[in-house]
Amino acid sequence: xxxxxxxxxxxxxxxxxxxxxxxxxxxxxxxxxxxxxxxxxxxxxxxxxxxxxxxxxxxxxxxxxxxxxxxxxxxxxxxxxxxxxxxxxxxxxxxxxxxxxxxxxxxxxxxxxxxxxxxxxxxxxxxxxxxxxxxxxxxxxxxxxxxxxxxxxxxxxxxxxxxxx
Length: 165
Known about the structure:
The chain is built from six helices and eight strands, in the order ββαββααββαββαα. Strands 1-7-8-4-3-5 form a six-stranded antiparallel sheet, with helices on both faces. The chain has a two-stranded antiparallel ribbon with strand order 2-6. Strand 7 (120-127) and strand 8 form a beta hairpin. By secondary structure, it is of the alpha+beta class. 28% of the residues are buried. Helix content is 39%, strand content 25%.
């Protein structure tokens, strides 16, 4: 269940690192991000628990305060610690990355390093965010991740075969 404002991201895809170190945002996700950003801006940051990056459109930022309030309320109900200041730091630690009409964008080095992104990236739209994975790190996620892992493996193989032609 999505809790933020705007688009619920849905779709997958894979992109090899191309010329000039560019990646390509899949068409289905590109349209969703453009609608959320009133243009072509992909916001990218580090996922707070997993070894991947998250992406979203600019309008999602408006929902962060409510998201933090909900998370804090839930943590209190469950008797768990919650640090809203740390969570704000996590949510607002993103970079605005422009992409062109073809979805091409350059992932800054600091984000590539944070997400372990090297030769390719698997995109998985899942509600409030697009998860951006290094395929090797996704493969290590274990039980419950089989569908994403299979889709990643298949689309990566297709992209590599296409690039080899």
